[in-house]
Amino acid sequence: MAPPGGRFVTRGKLAAALGLVALAGILAILFRMEDQFLYFPTRDLAASPADFGLEAEELAPETEDGVRLHGWRIRGDGRSALVFFHGNAGNIADRLDRARILRDRFGFDVFLVDYRGYGRSAGQPSEEGLYLDGWAAYRAAREAGFPPERIVLFGESLGAAVAIGTAADLPCAAVVLETPFLSIPEMARVHYPFVPAFLIRSRFDNGARIAGVGAPKLFLVAERDEIVPPVQGRRLYDLATGRKRLFVIPGAGHNDTYLTGGEAYWKAWEEFLEDIA
């Protein structure tokens, strides 16, 4: 005969064991679905450069691992190039309004290239793949005749990681980082604190790589960023070496930086570009 209470102890142990099995199953699913939490590509292009009155030509750079990408070179005054690394959602068509402003205000030839798996680019997104995509977009600007001292790299959100990775490996005139984060594990601690760190495969460790970026840097941090805690952008600025500037965009959230920032936002760009010139 079981001792008094033994039946309940057994049931309790069984419930705990089942709970652990369920938790392990959930974590295994999260591990397999990590990319779906990180990348939100859109295949259809909702607009074209012509819709914004932009003169552009198609780009089809190939990465070092053989993936064919799609992009546009938006014609400016031909003096300098801006390689635009977009965030983790949508595709390059969603950045045409900003590209138009960058061309009109600063004369940039804007190189917009979709990552693998986004828009008309082949392949599937991955951390290693996005870094290779960054190099390919940079090479497209070089092959168009722009020397490194006339190439500015601009990355928004996840694109900031691609810009940092590219600038750490290849020479450029400057880097502009908008709503940058420290790393994917640090972001997971904010949004998915129940997920053990050892299950997170993607790193995008900007905090570790930023010191390797020797070019002048402008950090654009959204004051009310609901996705990337502003403290992460400030910390990344602190970790950076060499010439650097920090501009906190008053009242801006993660996805309305230049709209909410208005003229003050563009003035920060202007002053930075004048300084590096």
How would you explain this protein's 3D organization?
The protein is an alpha/beta fold and 277 residues long. The chain has helices at residues 6-32, 34-38, 96-106, 127-143, 158-169, 184-191, 206-209, 230-239, 257-276, and strands spanning 40-41, 56-59, 71-74, 81-85, 89-90, 109-113, 151-156, 174-178, 217-222, 244-249. An eight-stranded mixed beta sheet has the order 2-3-6-4-7-8-9-10, sandwiched between helices. A two-stranded parallel ribbon has the order 1-5. Strand 7 (151-156), helix 5 and strand 8 (174-178) form a beta-alpha-beta unit. Helix 4 packs across helix 5 (158-169).
Topology at a glance:
Layout: H1 6-32, H2 34-38, E1 40-41, E2 56-59, E3 71-74, E4 81-85, E5 89-90, H3 96-106, E6 109-113, H4 127-143, E7 151-156, H5 158-169, E8 174-178, H6 184-191, H7 206-209, E9 217-222, H8 230-239, E10 244-249, H9 257-276
Parallel strand pairs: 1-5, 4-6, 4-7, 7-8, 8-9, 9-10
Antiparallel strand pairs: 2-3, 3-6
Helix pairs in contact: 4-5
Give a short summary of the structure.
The chain is of the alpha/beta class. The protein is built from nine helices and ten strands. The longest helix is centred in the first third of the chain and has 27 residues.
